[in-house]
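@channel anyone free to eyeball this complex?
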Amino acid sequence: MHEPGERMRVIATYNIKGGVGKTTAAVNLAYLAAQDGLRTLLWDLDPQAAATYMFRVRPRVKGGGKALISGTRSLDDAIKGTDFDRLDILPGDFTYRNMDLQLDGARHRARRLSRLLGPLTGEYDVVILDCPPSVSLVSENVLHAAGLVLVPIIPATLSLRTLDQLTGFVADFDGPRPEVLAFLSMVDRRKRIHREIAGQLPLERPDIAAAAIPALAVIERMAVERAPVSVFAPRSPAARCYRDLWEEVRKRAWG
Amino acid sequence: MGDTVRVVEARSREYVLVEPGPQLPDRVRDELATAFTVDEDRHAARLRRMWLDTFDWRLYRAGLTLQHVSTPGAPRTKEPGELVLTGTGGQRLTAPIQRTRWPVLPGALPPGPLRDRIAAVAGLRALLPVVSVVSQVREVRLCNADDKTIARLWLDGMSFPGPGHAPIPARLAVSEVRGYAAQARRARRILTAAGLAPSRQGPLDAALGAVGRRPGDYTGKVDVTLRPDMPGADAVRAILLQQLDNLEANVDGVLRDADTEFLHDLRIAVRRTRSGLKLLGDVLPGELTLRFASEFRWLGDMTTPLRDLDVHLLSVPPMAAQLVAVDPADLEPFLAYLGRRRTAERRKLGRALRSARFAATVGDWRKALLVPHDARRHGDRRPPAGPAAGELAADRTTRAHARVIKLGSVITGSSPPESLHTLRKRCKEMRYVLEFFASLHDPPVYRAVLGDLKRLQDCLGDFQDSQVQREEIQSLAAAMLAQQAAPAATLLAMGELAAQLGTRQGHARAEFAERFAGFAGPAGRRRMVALTTLNRA
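replying in thread with the prediction:
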C-alpha cells in the first residue's frame, strides 16, 4: 500500500466537544496504521494526556509545550517509542493548556504546528494529531496542519450542526483545506434515534463515514488495560468497527 | 516474520551467552529483575537465515550483509521470505523474494533499491549461499512500573539444520526503545556486570566460525605473507600453492556456470602459475618446471575459447547501445549465435576439468609443492641453497622491469601491433612478479610502482583487446555466413561493432607513447630503484 518516498499524511481527530471518542479513535487508528506497516506518530495535544496514558508513557515533555512551540526543543527529541512496532508518541503534557498563548506569540501563529511537523517528513508515513476539545488557536493550527480531519459525532441533530459549522470554517481557509470526515461515535443501538441516524446519515452525506463506533464497555476498558482495543480484545465488535473506520480513513487519505 | 526479523537488524552490541538455546539464564534474569519487570516471551519464533555473498565476498568487504530470511517449513507460496540487506552503519533494505534457487545474478533479484545497491557492489558476480542456520528468536521485554516496555532483549539461538554440527553459542542483543536510551544503557550495564561479554563477532562470523570458516576467506588476489630472509624456494612454493588453491576453488563455480568470473579467476590463477614457473621456476627442481609448464599451458588453452565468448557476450550489449547506423536489435542473431557457441565450449571445458589429466595435474602439482618442503623441515638440516626471498624478489622484479623498458623503448608509431602485444605480455609478467612479492615491499612505494604499470597495462589492454575482438567478430561473421545464420542487418550491425573497436584501438595506440613515458621516465625509474633497493638491503 505504502511506497517509500511518499509524502507524510497528517490526520487529526477533532471536535469542539469533549467526551465524544476523539482520543479512543486516535489511539486505535494510530495502532492500526502502524499494524498496516506505516511509520506512525501520534501527537497527544491534549493537556489531559489520555492518549499518552493509554500507551503507558509518562505525560511529560522536557521544557513543556513552550519549548516545542518555540523550537528550543525539537519534536524529534521529545518522541517516545510505544510498545508497538512503528508506533511512536509525542506525549501530552499539562503545560499544553497554555499552548494557545504560546502559539499567539509565535510567528505564523496559525500554521506553527504545521511548520514544526515539517522536519518529521521522511521519518513517518502518517502523523495523527489528537486535539483537545475547544475552538482555539491550537485547533486552528491542527486544521491547517491536517490533510484529513476526523470528527467523531454523537448521533444527534446538534452534532450535525456543529459539523456543518466546522466544515464552513474550514471552507474559508486560504490555501490548502483539509478534508473533513465525520464518523458516528458512541452509537447506542438501544436508542431508536441512534439507530435511525446511524442507518441514514452515512447514506445521505458523503462527509460521514459508513463505519461507526458503538458505545461499548470494551472501549471504556482501554483506560484500564492501557492499550488499544485491538490489542486486548482483537476479536471484539469494537475492534472490528475501528478496523472498518481505519479502512475508510486509509482510502480517503491515500486514495 | 515481522517482529522476528528485527533481530537480524539489531544495531546494538550483542552479547554471547555460553548456554545454548534462546533462554535467558536464571542469574541474568535475576540481575535484570532488580531494575526492570522482565517479561520473557514464551514462544520462540523460528526462522531460517541464509547469508549470501559473492564468491569473493564483495558485499562483506563493502560492509554489507545480505540474508534470505524465511520461516522453516512454511509453504513458500504463502510466506515467500524476505531479503534483508544491512550495512555497518545500521542502514537496512528489504525486499520480498519468491522461491529462489541460488546462485543468482544480481539482475535476477526483485527490482528496487535493494537490488540496485547489491548490483552496484557485486557487479558481474552471482550471489551464493555462504552459510545457513535456523534461528530461534525470543523477545524479552524490560518494563517499568507502568508495565511500559522501555528496552528489549533479543535472544537468538542459532543452530545448523541437521545433525553433526558444532553448537553455536546463543546471542543476546539489547535494542533501545525510542526516548528510553538511558534505560537501555542501564540494561547493558547489568548484563556486563552479570558477566556477559560483548561480542566482537556478528552473527555471520559466529555461524561461519562454527563451521571453521571466516568471512573473506577467498580472494582472487595474491595473498601470501613472505619474509625477506626466508628461502626463496619456500617463498615460491607458498606463492604457487595459493594460486593452486585459487585455481581449485574456482573449478566448481566454472562447472556450475554460476557467473563468468569463476572462469576469469581460474584463468588468472593459471596464468600466474605459468608466469611463476617461467620467472621463478629456476629455484625449484628443474623437472617440475618442465613437466608442469606444459600442463598448465594445456589448461590455459582449454579455457581460452570460453573466456573469449564471455568477453564478447559481456561487451556487446554496452557497445550495442552506442550503435548509430543500425538497430541494436539487429544483433540478436549474433548474441544467439555466441550463446550457442558458448554452450558447446562450456561442455568442452567441463570435460577437461573433469578429466583424469586435470586431476593428475593439480594433484601432482600440490604434492610437488608440499612434499620437498616438509621433507627438508623434518630431515635435512643444511641451510637451503639459492637466494633468500628478498633477494629473489629484487632480482626478478628488476629483470622483469628491464624487459619492459627494453621492449617498450623501441616501439614507435610505425611498429607492428605484435610489438605492443609482446610488450603487454612482459607487462603482465612484471605485474605478477610485483604481486607475488607484494608483502616484502614498502607499501607506498609498491602502490606507486603498481600504479605506473597499471596505467601502461590499461592502454596496452585496450589496444590488444580491441584488435582481438574485432578480428573475432570478423571471423564469427564469416562462420555465421557459412552456416546461413546471419541476416544482412546483423552483419551490418557487427560491422559497426568492429568499427567501434577499430576506433578504440586507434585511441589506445595514440595514447601509448605518453603512457610509456610515464612508466619509463625518471620518476618511474626512481620508484623502481627504491622498491628493489629496500629488498636487497
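from a first look: Strands of chain B lie at 14-16, 37-40, 45-53, 64-70, 82-87, 92-96, 128-143, 149-159, 171-176, 197-198.
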